[in-house]
Each structure stands twice: as C-alpha cells, then as structure tokens.
Amino acid sequence: MFLVDDCEVIDLEVLHQDRGSLTALENQSSIPFSVKRVYYLYDVPYGADRGGHAHYKLQQYVMAASGSFTFVLDDGKNKREIFLNSPQKALHIRPGIWREMKDFSSGSICLVLASELYDESDYIRDYNNFLRSRNG
Question: What sections of the protein cross the membrane (predicted)?
C-alpha cells in the first residue's frame, strides 16, 4: 500500500520560446503509466471542495493548468497538503490514497491524467470504508 509520501510533485520538462512555453507528456516516458482518461475541473465556486474519495487501482497526474488549488492527501495514518499553482508541475497520486481538494483560485483549471477509464467500482467514497480498506 502506498503512503502519502509516495505521492510526489514532479517537475515537468518545459520548452521555453519567445512565442510561449510548451510541456509535452508521453505515456510510459514522462508519465509512469498509460493515460486512459483525461478530464479537467473548472468553474469551481469559491469555498467549494472537490474529491473526497480514494481509488483501489487508479493513479493520476494532476496539474494546475491555470490558477491554484490545494490537495489534501491521506493514507489513513498521515495527511499531507500540497499546493499546486504551476502548469510546470504535476502531482502523482498513487492508488489507495484519499484525496480532497480545496482553496480553488478564481479561474483555476485542474487537469487530470488518469491511468484507468472511469469505473465506479474503483472508487472508495466513504472515509470509514477507506480506513477499513487500509487497515485490513
């Protein structure tokens, strides 16, 4: 089982040019898994929270494509807050980690690259069930 310390912020390679900057991500190269799903969150109202779940097998790369927000990661024993505010960084969230998102800035866009297609049976949406899954 992964711990919150196994979730790391990755510096993404950026090509800077006079015309702007570009970051490219490739399966099994700059991302350690094959991306099967891409989605993004935006227009999150002031004060709203997102997340509030864990996954059995899905892992994610999460980026602040615009603006900023905070992830609260929880492995059942330890919690860790990670502030994302740059499209040049990605948070790699491992399977089995509870995640909550908060403090979205105005106009923020949260871009998520996921290792699996959407599968409701992969979600753990109840925190007590999450703790049971972690503690056997």
Answer: none
Let me know: does 121 contact 72? Beta carbons within 8 Å: no
53 assigned to active site: yes
Say how far residue 135 (Cα) sits from the centre of its chain: 23
- Rounded CA-CA distance 10/2 in Å is 17
Higher pLDDT, 29 or 52: 52
Q: How far apart are CA 134 and CA 62, in angstroms?
A: 23
Give 52-94 pLDDT, tens digit per residue: 999 999 999 999 999 999 999 999 999 999 999 999 999 999 9
Residue 14 has phi, psi (to 5 degrees) of -125, 135
- What Rg do the C-alpha atoms of the chain give, in angstroms? 15
> Is there a contact between 110 and 69 (Cβ–Cβ < 8 Å)?
yes
Answer whether 0.90 is exceeded by the pTM. yes
Q: Does domain 4-135 have CATH number 2.60.120.10?
A: yes
Dihedral (Cα; 77, 113, 42, 87), 10-degree rounding: 90
Nearest to 57 by CA among 8, 129, 2, 127: 2
